[in-house]
Structure formats: C-alpha cells, structure tokens
Amino acid sequence: MASSGNSPKILVTGGAGFIGSHTVVALVEAGFEPVIVDNFDNSQKSALDGLRAILGRDVICYDADCNDAPTMEAIFRDESFRGVIHFAAHKAVGESVAKPLKYYRNNLDSLMLLLDLMPKYNVPNLVFSSSCTVYGQPERLPVTEETPRRPAQSPYGNTKAISEDIIRDVVQANTPIKALALRYFNPVGAHPSALIGELPLGVPANLVPYLMQTAAGIRQNLTVHGNDYNTPDGTCIRDYIHVMDLAEAHVQAVNVLSKSSDERSYDVLNIGTGHGETVLHIIKTFEEATGVSLRYTIGPRRPGDVEQVYADVTKAQTVLGWTARRSLAESLRDAWRWQKKLSSNVVES
C-alpha cells in the first residue's frame, strides 16, 4: 500500500500501542497518512514491524515524549496535520493510585501541550481517548452520554474526567478546535492478521488478556471475581468491543470533524457494542469459538469492581454513522490467534 503525498496527515500520539496501532491501520485504509509519536513507555517497537507487514510500507514514527515541548513543536512545524488522535497516556490503574503525580503530570500536561500547539499550527480537529470509567457504577443502564459522571476510583480515571473538562473549557474559550471525546468501553481482540495486538506488561489486569494467557499456559488459572452479583449468572457484566471496530470509530470521528463547518465544537460519544456480557459468558464463548478448554475458579469479589456497565451507542451511530460490526466470538478468536503467535515467538526465541 503506497504512501500518498496528498493524503491528509493525522498525528497519532501513542500510535504504537494497542488501540493506536489498530487505528493507524484503519486510518491508512481510509486514505489518511498517520504520523505516530510514541516514546514506547507502554508499547513495543515490534508493533512498527507488524504495521509494516500489514500495510506494505513504513509508517512515519517519531520516538518522542508527548510532554517534550520543543520536540513536539518541531514535529508540528515540520508536518502539516489535519487532526490529532490523542491516545498517549499512562494507564495502569494500580500504579496511578501509588504514584498519582506521575499520572497527573503525564496525562494532563501532554494534552495541554497539544491544545497549545494545535491552534498555533492551524490544526483544527482533535479526537480524545476517554473511558467509560468516568461513569463509575451507574444507577441506570445502559449508560448514555447524559449519565452523570461519578467520582473516579483512581487517579488514572480522574485524568480522563479532568481531560474532558480541559478540552471543553478550551473550546468554550473560543479556541478554534473541534473535538470529540470517545468514551471507550472494553476493547478486545486483535487485527485478524495476528500481526498486531495487545501487549500487556506484567500480569494483565483485564479479563480477556488474562484469559488468553491462561489458555496459553502462561497463567495457571483464571479467577472469576465473584458470582453473587445481581446479573443473570452472578458474574460482572461489561461491554466488549473489537479493537478494529473501535479503530474505525476514530476514523469516522476524524471524518465528521473534518467535514464540520463549525469553527469550534466539543462533544462526547460512547463507543461500545450496546450490550453487556457476563464473565462466564465470555469464558463459554471463548471455549466454543476456539475449541480450547479454560481452567478457571470462582473467587471472592474484587474491591472496586463495578457490577455491570454497558453502553447506549445511539448517539455514536447518529453522529458518526458508525456501529460495531464484529461479534464477541470474532473478537475472542482474533485475540487467541494473536496470543498463539506471541507464545510461538517466545518458544522460538
């Protein structure tokens, strides 16, 4: 897939990460020219090899920190961006509790630097990576964009809420920026080629990566944290979205912002499938989709776990003309194909 000199350039901060790398693929397929900025603090340079294999060419990538003002200014000066997709952030919930200032400095300062540089270099469009964590445990389901935000359970979650507020306030101050904050639910899966996917550092905190590592024999057993919740089978419910569906939502967000005649605007959108799945249903679907039996036990509830949360995605469908297309079984098959490739690489090395 050849690079086009006329393709609009989109800055993708954290573009070598899990969601970022898949969004880079979706951007190229949609006719954009992504430019990655990543310091590889929470990603690996092998993702660039995967992108090259999928796309048939290299992607422009700056090995840089989004908080490095002189470097970021030079990148904005040298490249002519049509928009920015901002993924780059520290994201380990537990670490954020132990090191809150690290999270506030990194996650908020990098956003504010972008908001300074965008109007200076006439970059109008911003897509921000937010999270459904801003809702906490909602009183009513499904969650809409009008559902009240609740106090964050971690400094990481709080950086997402504060970042939304910063963008809103900057736009309201007559800054010529059009922004959409996408509140993700639970991204899972991998590119169907198994050339890029999720690379959790250490012991995964999320269900699906831990499940995959258990199926691969890396973890001895998967613990289901509680089976006495007020749900159909007693286990927690989440809204799991294939990472490629999520990536395509970002592309649609860029398209919508680019076509908008507004000089400035800000809005938030839920990005999920619109329905929830229990932990036990995830396990059963994985086993049926892959033919692999999973070792798991039922353990006590985990403090801080939300009982159930899933999205109302009507607004995203209306505003973006987008809907999640891939099934849970497809998500889990793609994640498993990626995990098997990772495991085989470890054995070979």
TrEMBL record:
Catalytic reaction list: UDP-alpha-D-glucose = UDP-alpha-D-galactose
Pathway participation: Carbohydrate metabolism; galactose metabolism
Cofactor field: NAD(+)
Gene Ontology CC entries for this record: cytosol
Ranges where the NAD(P)-binding domain occurs: 11-334
Keyword field contains Cell cycle: no
Listed name of the protein: UDP-glucose 4-epimerase
Organism of this sequence: Spirosoma montaniterrae
Lineage, uppermost ranks: Bacteria, Pseudomonadati, Bacteroidota, Cytophagia, Cytophagales
